[in-house]
TrEMBL record:
It holds the Pfam family TetR_N. The lineage of its organism: Bacteria, Bacillati, Actinomycetota, Actinomycetes, Micrococcales. Residues 16-76 form the HTH tetR-type domain. Residues 39-58 bind DNA. It comes from the Bacteria. InterPro entries: Homeodomain-like_sf (IPR009057), HTH-type_TetR-like_transc_reg (IPR050109), HTH_TetR (IPR001647). Signal peptide: none annotated. This is AcrR family transcriptional regulator. Keywords: DNA-binding.
Length: 222
């Protein structure tokens, strides 16, 4: 068990609530004024805590953001698995059924407009900071790779349960899907300010999923 995992395991309910309030406050403030312009004091004030409460949970703003990344990934993966359990595998044998199921899954895991905009702004700024600061880049890439590995494991498990398979290796598929989702989120935010677009960004993501999944195997007649 790593130090971080041990800390999570022994975290009391009260400390967990404090941590969640700090994360919620940080997301709001980061999205409003930017991560670099946000002080630790501003996060504490928004959450209603002291600096001591902050440093008992996080060593820095960067560590705080990495925790936001992990929380967002865990929530989406949990939602994805819950939604997939409601899908009848037999319905995936037709193009219409497959597309309907795909739409259900994507709608469930995607945040609403306000939350989507908020997260897109914060994630883009942190990635830019990682491009500029080598120490931040190391932290960012380590967490990013860990999250992608978790996504890949969940994706493999879900596809197996539905009798589906990818036409390429899982790590490459995850890279393509997450990159496409990021691009779709940014495009959707920009498109809110203009009606000029060739195709809805979410439709492009659906088209990519169609390309990455092999056709369902015919089920034997009974």
């Amino acid at each position: 068990m790593t130090t971080a995992e041990h800390a999570a395991a022994v975290r009391s309910p009260r400390r967990e609530r404090t941590r969640e309030r700090l994360l919620d406050a940080a997301l709001d403030v980061f999205a409003e004024v930017g991560m670099q312009a946000t002080s630790i004091e501003a996060v504490c004030e928004a959450a209603g805590f002291t600096r001591g409460a902050f440093y008992s949970n996080f060593a820095s703003k960067e560590e705080l953001f990495l925790a936001l990344m992990q929380r967002d990934a865990e929530r989406q993966l949990g939602t994805l698995e819950e939604v997939v359990e409601t899908i009848d595998a037999d319905s995936l044998t037709t193009p219409e059924g497959f597309r309907a199921a795909l739409g259900t899954v994507m709608s469930a895991v995607r945040p609403d407009g306000g939350a989507r905009r908020q997260w897109c702004l914060v994630a883009a700024e942190f990635e830019l900071l990682a491009l500029r600061e080598p120490d931040v880049a190391t932290l960012y890439l380590t967490e990013h790779r860990r999250i992608r590995a978790e996504v890949g494991a969940v994706l493999d498990r879900i596809l197996a349960s539905l009798g589906l398979r990818l036409v390429i290796d899982t790590p490459t598929a995850v890279d393509l899907l997450l990159s496409a989702e990021d691009a779709a989120s940014r495009a959707a935010l920009l498109d809110d300010r203009s009606g000029d677009r060739a195709a809805p960004p979410d439709r492009r993501l659906e088209a990519l999923v169609d390309l990455l999944l092999a056709p369902p195997e015919p089920r034997p007649a009974t």
